Amino acid sequence: MAGGDALATGFIKSPLSQKRLTQDSVELYCEAIGNPIPEIQWWFEGNEPNETYAQLWDGARQDRVKINATYNLHSTSTIYIANLTSDDSGMYECRASNDPDRNHLSKSPKVKWIRSQANVFVIERPQVKTDVTDASGKLHLTCNMSTPYADIKGHEWMHGGKILQTDAESSAFTSYIIEGKMEEHSGIYECVYKTDPVIKAQVNISVPPQVMAYKKSEHGNEGDTGVLTCKNPSFPPVSSWIWYKNGQEVRAVPIINGSGRYIIKSSGNKTELRILKLNIEEDAGDYHCNATNSYGMGGATVNLRVRSRLAALWPFLGIVAEVLVLVTIIFIYEKRRKPDEVLDDDDGGSAPLKSNATNHKDKNVRQRNAN
Prior knowledge:
This protein is of the alpha+beta class and 371 residues long. The chain has helices at 60-63, 280-283, 314-370, and strands spanning 9-13, 18-21, 26-34, 39-46, 54-56, 65-71, 75-81, 90-97, 114-123, 128-135, 138-145, 155-159, 162-167, 173-179, 187-193, 199-205, 212-213, 217-221, 226-231, 240-245, 253-254, 262-267, 270-275, 285-293, 296-307. The strands form six sheets. A five-stranded mixed β-sheet has the order 2-9-8-4-5, with no helix packed on it. A five-stranded mixed β-sheet has the order 18-25-24-20-21. The N and C termini lie far apart (162 Å).
């Protein structure tokens, strides 16, 4: 690199040497600065005696090589190689230059390409034999490396990204026990050998679809859209879904997506049946979602109940009826009670008259006696 030059180019980050297994992938990263912004190229030299450096391009090696580069404030480039083979072992070189004549066919650049190297070691992947046995209500998962690796520092068992078991044994054989049935614990399990690089193998617990309905009973209002949903939490994923409805006939009739008022949306382990403009007489009943994978079939049933549009008004109408009955009872009670109250008022008013009449009679008697 030319020191103190306005065109000077330098590396900010250089690629790092790595170990990988065959069938794995590798990614190397390079970052450079300069003014103007430098160009980055990738070159490779294999381990064969007569092999020399050759430039790598995006799409090389039967499209297993992917190169991404950005040129903003400085240059960054990443080379990614998929499905590694032993022929991918060798020296990878990141070259950077911002000399205007860097790619000229006859002129030599004033500033040479600067280089940063990383060695990639691709090791033949050992074979790991896996097995699953079901005995006495327990699942025995095993991994056995048929070609023992030189330095095993332990094992891990993983499922869904979580570590289930770990040890520090150096054996080529490792096992994991699960309490329960296969249908309850299906999925992808991994046995991990603590080596450099890490060796992993998959142990699959595979079962027919264990289909479940989101709701065993669904309700919908007449004229609205009914939605019925089923899912499959087991492994392997569902390859095909079929919906059908039990009618009055003995045989069930499959529902075709897009026919009539039916719309079916299925994606992987989930399926959804939509019924447009629900009809009480035609749409109420049992619907079956049937799933198929490479290990068999499974299904679930959803009962659909369709309510009249007036169903939502029944509680309100019931309250109104109760109020009307209560008002009627009060009205009748008041109407019967008022005549009695009028009679009581008349009696109360006549009492003084009787008392006055008695007083006048007594007064006349006294007057006669006086005479």
